[in-house]
Amino acid sequence: MSQNLVEQIVSEVIRKQSSSLGTAQVASSNYSECGLTEYVGTATGHTIGLVIANVDSQLHELMGIDKKYRSIGVLGARTGAGPQIFAADEAVKATNSEILKIELPRDTEGGGGHGSLIIFGAEDVSDARRAIEVSLNEVERTMGDVYGSAAGHLEFQYTARASSALNQAFGAPIGKSFGMTVGCPAAIGVVIADVAAKSAVVEAVGYSSPGHGTSYSNEVIFTFSGDSGAVRQAVIAAREVGLNLLSTLDPSVLKSTTTPYI
Q: pLDDT-based confidence at 233, cuts 50/70/90?
């Protein structure tokens, strides 16, 4: 039996199992739209999930991937970095996979922020595919506190327990509650970072601005950790102020991308 056929059979079995469990609705519902075995699904933010069962040896070496990870999952998006990274963090917790690379290209489809490229590594293709399926479903949730208009965007994220994806991307302490505020234009990002820091007892982890720590995007990113309640409080306080400020630049009503979760 050819390797190609084996991969197709494995992919189909995994897809049917995930669909029956109801844990990968985004991936399974989109699978039939593309006949390629590499395709897993799509999600909000022009996010696409792909998997390569056996990476070409030359490409494997150029990418600098550990040889034990013959299979990779690839999550890429035009709009959103935080939502995809927080989603990937949940995927790592739920699967036997590792985060190999996280990159934040300048994008947001012409807006003021980032897109994203996240690569998972796994020794087995089923683990790589499962990581992508979990991520695609989680993006629908983590996009819930992303707000945008022609004038800019705001993003707020929270997790009760950070894992390796957030540690690699933002230096989040593994196992601790972790939050993030993003404001575009960057002036708003500065103010909501200050609000978050003052509103609760949290420990600052990182601060990124247009010229330092971002891909020259017009936004400020503030990350912090601490007690779960304090981190949530800081995020909520920053969200209230950020929505107020961004609304002064555009009279349209700011709505969340999906459903707020914080």
A: very high
Which class for 248: exposed (0-12), middle (13-18), buried (19 or more C-beta within 10 A)? exposed
User: What pLDDT does residue 80 have?
Assistant: 87
Structure tokens at 174: 């593994």
Q: Within 10 Å of residue 36's Cβ, how many Cβ atoms?
A: 9
Q: What is the mean pLDDT of residues 231-249?
A: 96
Q: Which structure tokens are listed for 208?
A: 């990124």
Rounded to 5°, angle at Cα 63 from 62 and 67: 95
Identify the three-state secondary structure at position 109: helix
What is the overall mean pLDDT for the chain? 88
Q: What is the DSSP letter of 174?
A: T
d(CA 68, CA 148) in angstroms, rounded, equals: 41
Q: Is 117 helix (H, G, I), strand (E, B) or coil?
A: strand
Helices 228-247 and 186-199: crossing angle in degrees, nearest 10, is 150
Q: How confident is the model at residue 3 (pLDDT cuts 50, 70, 90)?
A: low
Q: 13: buried, middle or exposed (CB in 10 Å: 19+, 13-18, 0-12)?
A: exposed
- The two tokens of residue 252 are 């349209």
Q: How far apart are CA 133 and CA 47, in angstroms?
A: 12
pTM > 0.85: no
